[in-house]
Amino acid sequence: MAAKVSAFLALSFHRNGVRVMIVFQGYTLVSTIIEVSVILHHRFDDTYDMTPLQ
Question: Is the pTM higher than 0.85?
Fold first, then answer.
């Protein structure tokens, strides 16, 4: 899906194709970082919830 979107953007803005690809790769990197941080945050919450309250 992401490859189709990036190819579509590169074809639609062929003159600025390089800039579009850089922006798209940056967006992919940011969303990956957000996804990883959310997963780690949920794991931390699960571990925290499993610890009994003193």
Answer: no
